[in-house]
Amino acid sequence: MTPKQRAAYELKQAGHSFRNIAKKLGISKSTAYINYTRAMRYLDTDPGVQDAMGKSGLNDISKVHSGWIKTDEASLYFVNPKEEPVEALEGTIERIKERMQGITPLPPIEAPTEADIDLLTIYPIADAHIGMRAIEAEAGQEYNIDIAAERIRRSIDGLVDASPASQKAIILDVGDLTHADDTNYVTPRSKHPLDMSATQYESIDVAIEVLSASIFAALRKHQEVFVRILRGNHNENSYIAVMFALHERFKENPRVTIEKTPADFFVHDFGKCMFAAHHGDKAKADRLVMHMAHEWPEVWGRTKWRYYFLGHFHHTRVQDVGGVQVEQLRAATSRDKYAATHGYVGSPQLQAITYHKDNGERSRVKINF
Predict the structure, then answer these.
(1) pLDDT in tens, 152-195
(2) Model confidence over 147-164: pLDDT tens digits?
(3) 355 and 234: one domain?
(4) What is the pTM of this model?
């Protein structure tokens, strides 16, 4: 690797941000990231290729795309992976963190005077796909960014009003809050084209405002509001922007907790109740339940009522698996053209579920669309 690449790598390993690395080396932040990434590519390169580069006098991995390595025993052809474009190398999480730090925190909101400390209410939001476009002629129902925003705002308002005044509320997004992950407007892994009703900027902006409104609604009824945003297969990275924005917006409010973590799994306990959630795209229910028991044995051991929430498939299914009620949630979104033409069915729905700390589920309120 080159001296600048080695310097960027060593500074990053020492814990410096790319902004600090850029200042120390007298380069731009993007160049600092590129140098670090090229150093990592060099270290991940096969030792034989490294040796051949050294013998030829090359030390910059970006200059070596492919070639032959010849020895007395064999001749081998190698191809190095293509370098990602600069805009993909700036570091998604770091860019989001830096841009969110300028958000002005909202002032504290007066707490309700009465709340039942024995109750907890969960407001799960599954697969809202904000930014998606569907038209009635193709999908059977209209859906766009305005419909999505109005649907979630009005529904959470109604669900809060109809739910008991539990001391604590959890707003739980189980993934795919937004329809796209970036401006390519394809699914991140399969690269399936997405029908969009708004830009990525507009989708994330509306997602932040919708969840902010949901938090305000919950604060009217509940003394504590806990918020968790999970990754989905449509928004594998962009969910982080929503999470950091909400954290900055509500960080001065002692009654609101935004759980800021990139973990795929949500786990929470309340008295004898244990709750878990995952988007549901990477494992089936039985495996997720075994993982739940293995990873959180202390919580598992002291609880009696255990619940697991999943999204991803857009239709409802409830099953008992190894002492856990696994609930696949209905999506908040309507079908798109792809789902309609492939015969997928499912009615959009949002709900609120209230639990007693000793006796498990107490009541439900549902809103169908």
Answers:
(1) 999 999 999 999 999 999 999 999 999 999 999 999 988 999 99
(2) 999 999 999 999 999 999
(3) yes
(4) 0.74
305 shares a domain with 230: yes
Question: Are 329 and 311 spatial neighbours (Cβ–Cβ below 8 Å)?
Answer: yes
Residues 68 and 126 both lie in one domain = no
CA proximity to 323, closest of 351, 289, 356, 349: 289
Q: Are residues 201 and 302 in the same domain?
A: yes
> Domain limits at 53?
3-88
> Residue 86's pLDDT is what?
46
CATH number at residue 351: 3.60.21.10
167 and 274 co-located in one domain: yes
In the structure, what pLDDT confidence band is assigned to residue 99 with cuts at 50, 70 and 90? low
**Beta-carbon contacts of residue 355 (< 8 Å; ≥ 6 apart):** 119, 120, 121, 122, 270, 273, 305, 307, 361, 362
* Residue whose C-alpha is closest to residue 267's, from 278, 281, 283: 278
In a shared domain, residues 139 and 165? yes
Residue 273 dihedral angles phi and psi, to the nearest 5°: -105, 140
Residues 182/132, Cβ–Cβ less than 8 Å: no
